[in-house]
Structures are given as structure tokens and as C-alpha cells.
Amino acid sequence: MIGRDRKATFAYIKDRVWQKINSWSGKCLSKTGREVMIKSVLQAIPTYVMSIFQLPSTLIDSIEKMINSFWWGHGKMTHRGIHWMNWEKLLAPKIHGGMGFKDLSAFNLAMLGKQGWKFITEPNSLVARIFKARYFPSGSYLTATVGHNPSYVWRSIMCARFIVRGGVRWTIDSGASISIFNEPWLSNGEFISSDTPGAHFIHNFTINSLMNLYDKSWNEQVVR
Question: Which position among 21, 90, 149, 190 has the lowest Cβ density within 10 Å, counted as fewest Cβ atoms?
Fold first, then answer.
């Protein structure tokens, strides 16, 4: 159960990262060894939880500070060392002068966005049917609302919806289920706003209204 004190609920993740760091504190790791340790072990620990819950930003900051100290640390137990570069620059790809470490906040949102994408692409899966029945029975993930008394899982997945909306595109087939307005169906991924002058005349029309259905071409006269 996720209570009000979410940082305390997920504190065990921070503890596991700390234990891993301590288990290696007495060993002489090269910079290459530290890099592998961070990427393959430390930053992989919260992956499963991040695919379901949005972790508190304060917790993520604490974990990243621990990893940053481990990276720059030179002592066996204290991990004290000069931080020659801030953490934000270390997150950049190596080709841009960084180390390619994960931005855990962005990674968390990406993993949650992946769950939302599954609701769209795998609507017959058990989890998609359960969430649809509970939160968007007459709509879709892209049009759903948080609703009354939602679970923390649903709140978390909804927080990442802007990522899915920013990248999702319609592929036109019959066009019978796609509204002309406010849907990303144009070739460049943009949409026609329902605020367009005169839009109220065709507010309920779908894409197939603009097509020659026999050869799936645009009816230029109707479009114009």
C-alpha cells in the first residue's frame, strides 16, 4: 500500500543502492569499473518499481547524489573526492562530453509512458482491460481523466501521458474512428485544432468523411 509518505514507502530502494555501494567500498575499482557498476547495477535497481510508480523527486535526488559521490569518491569508506563536473553534465552522452549515465527522473517517466503505450497497442491484455473498465470505460488512455479516488499506479501512469501524446501518431486506414480535430493524423504528426473557425460545422465528423473510400484517396473538393 502506498501511503502519504511516499519517500518512506520507497526508501528501501535507496537502502539497496547504499548497500551495493558499501559492498564495493573496500575494493579498488578503476573508473571503468565504477562506470560499469553504476550503469549495470546501481541504476538498474529501481527499474522494476519505476515501471509502475512515479518515485518522489526527493528520493531520486538522494539516489543520484549517492551515485555521484561513488563516481567521484577516492577513499575506501568515505567516498570523498573532488567533483570535477556536475551530475547534469555526466548524464550527457559520451559524444557530448558526458558519461551517459541515466537521468532517473526521465527514465521513470519513460517507463511509465511505456505502460500507457501498452494500453493503446495491447487493448485486449488483462491489465489494459482492467484499467479501462476502472478509469476510461467509454474512452481511451489519451482522453482519460484521473478520476475519483484513483490508485497511485494510475496517477503515475497519467503523469507520463504527455510523453505518449507527444510521440503518438495515427496511421490512417478506413479513418472511421479518428476525429478530424485534435488528433495527430497529419503527415507531420500535427493536428487540426477544434478552435479553427467553422470547426463546429463538422465537429462530429471523422477522417473517412474527407476520403474517397473506393481508392482511399483524399476527396480534394470536400477537403477544400
Answer: 149
